[in-house]
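Researcher: Next entry in the queue.
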Amino acid sequence: MKHLYIFDIPSSSANNGIGTYIKQVVEMVRRWKDFQVSMIMLQTNAEAFFVGSYKGMEHFFFPQSSSAYYQDTSEEVCSALVCHVDDSKETVFLLNYAPCEKLLTALKKTFPKSTCIFVIHDMSWTKPFMGDVEAFKAFASRKDKAVEQEKLLSSFLREKEQFAIADKVVCLCEDTLELLTTVYGVPSKKVFLIPNNSEIRDPLSMREKQKIRKAKHLGSEKILLSVGRISKPKGFFDFLEAFKQLLDHGYNVRWVIAGDLCNAPPFLKKAGNAITKITLTGILEAEELYQWYQIADIGIIPSYFEQFGYAGLEMMTNKLPIVASDGFGVRCMFSECENALVATLGEGETYYQEMLFKRTAELLKDKPLQKRFKKNGLLVLKERYNRLLFEQEYKQLLI
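Model: Structure for this entry, 399 residues:
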């Protein structure tokens, strides 16, 4: 019997896409015959290491480490696991957090017969380079790195090391696949491209939607919905300028942002008079977020980069017409006039903000285009991001 051990840091994954991903993988694998799943929970509130059962699954709980880096206790983690985990070809470890070269090294040393799989949910270069992949490639190819780039170089080399140690590497989009085989030098036979997936749900009736809008005290305004933490990499500060233009041009719109309220104070300060037309919900439970997806009119994804955004999947699942960037990873999910209007990043913030304004205004005015995107979004989901395909690819990965 195969046994899958999934590493998780619950304090982190509870508020991001990793948590959604882990939940999907667990639910899927637990349905398979001759497969067992256990969770290895790092940096928990436990006072000491213990093994327990939660939701019918074996869980290994590790306490907070004194170090700021979770993997500094990798040797201790493996020493505890060796008393409970068999080292065999039937054992598979699934890692979701980077950097993890120390943890991978410890696992390979302690469990040499087992398989270690690393899933890329983020990369170290994307934030400092704001998703500019050509700038990153130029940096990676230069032999004489500037002194101020030593931290970037260290992160890049650690990533290369973790990809080299892992037996298999899973990436979520074509942009990352290309980087792995070229810039990082990962053998193609080790790399698996497996995008995330989303389940299509039945839509609410018009009456139910109107009831929700009334409960939320919403009038006739069109709802523009973004999902994610308030940050510059997510493109929210850029869309704020585009949103101001929409209001100045007389569009009756409200921008709803569902996600972590980090950077909310400077964001709201920049909002000016538009502040009364912006709703910040904070992090929502799944069902409440589903309500916003259902009553929204247009989805806005202005990110500079994404490995793979669940928000985009969920917007298509809920038949939202979308305005998206052509940022790293985002462009793998959305194509111009197929399932979105694309705002090109181009040169400089002012240009991008103008593009966001123009593309959103264009979509707001074009009802037939909205209808087409709703239909095409579902087709894209069924063809590229369906659960059956996801399950087939994971069986090839794990078995």
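Model: Residues 367-384 form the longest helix (18 residues).
Researcher: Noted, moving on.
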